[in-house]
Design brief:
Elements: E1 2-7, E2 11-16, E3 19-22, H1 24-27, E4 29-30, E5 37-41, E6 44-53, E7 64-71, E8 82-83, H2 85-93, E9 96-105, E10 111-119, E11 133-137, E12 148-149, E13 156-163, E14 166-173, E15 185-191, E16 199-204, E17 211-218, E18 224-230, E19 236-242, E20 250-256, E21 262-269, E22 272-278, E23 284-290, E24 300-304, E25 313-320, E26 323-333, E27 340-351
Antiparallel strand pairs: 1-2, 2-27, 3-27, 4-6, 5-6, 6-7, 7-8, 9-10, 10-11, 11-12, 13-14, 14-15, 15-16, 17-18, 18-19, 19-20, 21-22, 22-23, 23-24, 25-26, 26-27
């Protein structure tokens, strides 16, 4: 089962063999973005993927719609594929293409999908981005509410998490990928009514020039960490921490990452911090570990594939008969360029070596 391992003096991180979750090569499609997952009951979760053209722009853009499946056994088996009607309606209208950027599940079982609206009239079917929207399901993904606008700021909601009965969203207020002026800021939004409404908590005081992508994470002490990608220095990821639930922020020194990072995704498993995403200069899919979420190891390549237009990813904390594990979902090229399958890989932490 072991695929790769990262060994430290007091713990070992074990990556199990990757498996194909969505075989886009077989059906002649691609799967750009929309890797959201959310656990709505113990061992039961919803798993999104995109169904995109493999021909338009090489399969690297969200020209298509969103699908999802349900697992009720921690990912061992899945339901039949369902189409997210909201995304199909938008695709047919031709104004926006929908990506489900993140999803969370509340204590009452409500699934909250946070959607990015890509410009369908643009050549690349992506930016400029419109305002984000939210849809809700109260019946485990069988039906969905009408969409509503999460906030008045156009941009991309890069991350969301659920903590102590509230939803937190990291939204980059920028119609385009990289920051170019002071109006491009990372805002934190919070919902305390299971996704029915959101209010702004704060602006993270990052220098946002040439910044894009981002991730948030609550640690075991209840502190909220925020990370941002720096296109001007791919080996140093911006880092800020909030000790009051996202109301105020302290900007820390950037995190040094030997192999760089793009589209960072973070998690905490049995006291070990996990970071994964594209490596610098599009060299492949990289994964790092840390004891404190600030100082990271040298990282390993899960896949080394220079120039491959892949490795968007997401993760979900789960627990099965063997203990806690992290389900990592990522896109992997099947043509060496930008047409991608969707992969699954489990990560486990072994301690007391």
């Amino acid at each position: 089962m072991s695929f790769k391992e990262i060994t430290h003096p007091d713990h070992r991180v074990i990556l199990e063999n990757p498996t194909v979750y969505v075989d886009n090569e077989k059906r002649g499609r691609s799967g750009h973005m929309s890797h959201a997952m959310a656990q709505f009951a113990p061992g039961c979760f919803i798993d999104f993927n995109s169904n995109c053209s493999a021909n338009r722009h090489g399969g690297h853009f969200p020209y298509g719609w969103v699908e999802y499946r349900i697992s009720r056994d921690c990912g061992k088996t899945y339901s039949d594929v369902k189409t997210l009607d909201y995304s199909m309606d938008c695709f047919l209208d031709g104004v926006h293409y929908i990506s489900v950027e993140k999803a969370v599940a509340c204590d009452d079982g409500t699934i909250v999908a946070i959607c990015l609206r890509n410009d369908a009239t643009h050549t690349y079917c992506c930016e400029p981005w419109s305002t984000p929207t939210v849809i809700l399901s109260h019946d485990e993904g069988e039906t969905w509410s009408d969409p509503y606008e999460m906030c008045p700021h156009a941009g991309r909601p890069y991350d969301a998490c659920y903590h102590n009965g509230a939803i937190y969203v990291l939204h980059y207020c920028n119609e385009h990928f990289l920051g170019t002026d002071p109006s491009h800021v990372y805002r934190i939004y919070k919902s305390e009514d299971c996704g029915k409404s959101f209010r702004e908590l704060s602006v993270i005081p990052f220098d946002t020039l040439r910044r894009g992508y981002g991730s948030i994470l609550f640690d075991d002490k209840g502190d909220l960490h925020a990370y941002a990608y720096n296109e001007g220095d791919e080996c140093n990821m911006d880092h800020a921490v909030s000790h009051d639930g996202g109301k105020s922020w302290e900007v820390l020194a950037p995190c040094f990452l030997e192999k760089g990072i793009r589209n960072p995704q973070t998690a905490l498993v049995d006291g070990v911090y996990i970071l994964h995403g594209r490596a610098k200069e599009v060299l492949g899919f990289v994964l790092y570990t840390s004891k404190d979420g600030n100082v990271w190891d040298e990282g390993i390549f899960v896949e080394y594939a220079p120039g491959a237009g892949a490795y968007y990813s997401n993760n979900l904390n789960l627990c099965d008969e063997n203990g806690n594990f992290l389900l990592i979902q990522y896109s992997s090229c099947y043509d060496g360029k930008a047409k991608v399958n969707v992969m699954h890989m489990n990560l486990r932490v072994q301690k007391d070596l």
